[in-house]
Amino acid sequence: MSAYSDLAARFSRAAAISNAIGILHWDHAAMMPKGAAASRSESVALLAVLRHEMVTDPEIGDLIGEAEAADGLGEWERANLREIRRAYTIDTALPADLVAASSKATSVCEMTWRQARADSDFAALLPSLSEVLSLQRQAGEAKAEKLGLSVYDALLNDYEPGGRSAKIDALFDDLADFLPGFTEEALAVQARRPQDPPLEGPFPVETQRALGVRLMAALGYDFERGRLDVSTHPFCGGADNDVRITTRYDEADFTSALMGVLHETGHALYEQGRPAGFMGQPVGSARGMSVHESQSLLIEMQACRSREFLDFAAPIMRDAFGGSGPAWETEALWRRYTRVSRGFIRVDADEVTYPAHVILRYRLERAMIAGDLPLAELPTAWNEGMRELLGVMPPNDRVGCLQDIHWPSGGWGYFPTYTLGAMTAAQLFAAAKSANPDMLPAIARGDFGPLVAWLRANVHGLGSLYETDELLTRATGSPLDASHFKAHLKRRYVDEG
After folding, report:
1. Cα–Cα 20 to 30 A to 421, which of 43, 222, 292, 464?
2. Mean pLDDT, the chain, as a whole number?
3. pTM for the whole thing?
4. Which of the following is catalytic: 83, 110, 160, 264?
């Protein structure tokens, strides 16, 4: 037990450094003045190197072997030891100078991206993004050699432990075949709906924020351990027991920011519900990003775009903005929140067209990592992909290849987890409704207790106790099955439409 205790103590200290980095990243996105970028990048890089040195200490390898040979570990401790070995194997693949260089490069690139996005100027981003890509490729090559994987799968493994592009290819190719015809069908059903008048703004930011806070509280978000702020790109971040979310507001349209808040609240509920007894240990962490994205999409798409949610929320929305008339009726708001359209922006996309946005990014990042797509050609490849998959052509790079922060911030291999998460969300929500037939009626009453309790028991509170397939099988009876997602889309956009 002494070897295990030593390991647990070391990884607890490493988690404390990760928490500090998390808060600095949040501040970087939400509060930091531009002039602090250089010194901030140095600080974060130093912390990243200190953490890396801590978790790659050669003594850790010996301690892992000693702990694995010992008797007396419980289920959670054995799982923690498994996750410690996983983390140690990955972290020891990277030299400290590469960790430092990557941290500095992404800090610089993120700040450059903010201005380049505002100016729709991909050329301004190209030098710093080229450096990030080069360093990501180096990291992927080092991990691939250690893990026996392809370079892309080694990067994907950071976000989706055990995930493989061969499996994703099969799932995404199936969706790419299914979605165009289904989109046409959904649009045809939508065309037969009544034409709803527009919601007349403006919608003051403070009123939007107050509405978001009220619905976050209804969902069960703990404001004693988190906060809501504004950033260029909405996200959930922070630290253990300090789970912060952001959104962005548009005074002409409150619906986008509100759903952004609900989406990030889904992430935050997962973070706030992780096992308290193993907080700071690898086994206490969230089980990969497809599961994490499933929690945000389960709340936003499955629950909060349902008719039952609008039964509860529509009167609150009307009261908040003093709305009246046909556009504010519950059914009209439901139609607005389930409207299908081919658009340019991923984060504003409906759940029918959203997978096409993800498939595009997945295919492009694989090509760039492999060296098959020169980075300078990304805008052209992006626009052609949008035309092919969605039938639209972005008018500029701001609403094209510059819209996401993921590549500038080093998130190569992240994008496929969004659609894996959407499929996982549909499967989990179906299981939750089956387990408790009062789930949807409770949401209609504004009671999210049954849903959150089921998620706490089957997802949040389990951390990384189980591998992803086992977690999903225990919760739903089977590993990931795209049929649940397809059935959900058909039910909402065709049968109920």
Report:
1. 222
2. 96
3. 0.93
4. 264
